[in-house]
Specification:
The protein is of the alpha/beta class. The chain has 3 domains: 1-52, no CATH class; 58-135, no CATH class; 164-187 and 207-301, no CATH class. It contains 11 helices and 5 strands; from the N terminus they run ααααααααβββαβαβα. The chain has helices spanning 3-8, 14-25, 30-37, 41-48, 66-81, 88-101, 115-124, 146-162, 239-244, 261-278, 297-301; strands at residues 175-184, 212-220, 229-232, 250-253, 285-287. α9 links the parallel β3 (229-232) and β4 (250-253). The longest helix has 18 residues, at 261-278. The N and C termini lie close together (7 Å).
Length: 302
């Protein structure tokens, strides 16, 4: 989102949402109407979907307005459907970060949501949300059955059809996969005892090294590799290091060199997205794993 759009953003009141919906009903494209009124597309898409039901909610007046809560509900449901269900703590943290960006809307006594608020929030949306114990999915590929894989592909296809972008699957250039490679600065590999004559001896890493260099890669299904992003363990990146990195690559920094949501968002906005625009490939489907750095609210909004 550009700076001009951010300046136009106004509180998500019912009046503003109604004006945005009226504009769409009069023929304005959803993306354009949302940008002009400062409303996230996820909010408007939810309002236009069959899942939105306008009805009074039980309990005292909520600390967040209805539009903000509906946006939060839509995000929770979308994350769960995509295989990344959010916890109570992540929801409360999301609300806290949101209110830090919009302090004028903060009506919580201590400035952040309490457990009581969370219970009341679930109660208001008990017809749509519930606390569940997720099914544990092992990382061992041997435990993934053919039916699991077919079910996953069916769910992905269903989501794409709902978003009216299922045609992406017919173009391998628009099917992307992103992942990181870590290069440990101090792996501390000790000698081990193995069978004599064994050519390949492996040791499962028991925990992450304190510091490493992370490289974020993205590839398309037709074999194209997009410019990567390097995350370095620096407080301030030395100038000679910056000059040594190709101009089209991304460069980030964290205390330990691990990817975080700020670096991932920077990669999406300033490295990957401009490349996709340049190649005229949007929209795309982008597969990443469920690490918290890959699934922040801010990335979905961008």
């Amino acid at each position: 989102m550009d700076n001009a759009a951010k300046k136009r953003r106004v509180p998500h009141s019912e009046e503003v949402i109604k004006r945005c919906l009226d504009a769409i009903s009069n023929g304005t494209p959803i993306k354009t109407a949302c940008r002009l009124h400062g409303i996230p597309r996820s909010t408007i898409k939810f309002r236009l979907s069959k899942h939105y039901k306008h009805q009074p909610r039980p309990g005292p007046a909520p600390a967040l307005n209805q539009a903000d809560e509906l946006e939060l509900v839509a995000w929770i449901k979308k994350m769960a459907r995509k295989g990344y269900p959010v916890t109570k703590y992540r929801i409360m943290n999301r609300v806290t970060l949101y209110l830090e960006e919009h302090p004028e809307r903060n009506r919580f006594q201590k400035g952040k949501p309490s457990y009581q608020w969370f219970r009341r929030f679930l109660n208001r949306y008990r017809s749509e949300l519930s606390v569940r114990k997720p099914e544990s999915v092992t990382k061992a590929s041997a435990n993934v059955t053919e039916s699991d894989i077919r079910k996953w592909f069916k769910e992905v296809l269903g989501i794409l059809r709902e978003e009216k972008v299922a045609d992406i699957l017919s173009d391998p250039r628009r099917i992307l996969n992103g992942d990181e490679a870590c290069f440990y600065l101090d792996p501390m590999i000790n000698k081990v005892i193995a069978r004599k004559g064994e050519r390949n001896v492996y040791k499962v890493d028991q925990g992450p090294a304190k510091k490493n260099i992370t490289v974020m890669f993205t590839c398309s299904a037709d074999g194209v590799v997009f410019p990567p992003m390097i995350v370095l363990p620096y407080k301030k990146i030395p100038m000679e290091v910056t000059k040594s990195v190709p101009a089209e690559w991304g460069l980030g920094k964290t205390d330990n060199g691990w990817m975080n949501k700020e670096c991932f968002l920077k990669y999406i906005k300033h490295i990957l997205h401009p490349q996709l625009v340049k190649a005229n490939l949007l929209p795309v489907i982008y597969f990443v794993d469920g690490h918290s750095s890959h699934t922040p609210w801010e990335t979905a909004e961008e």
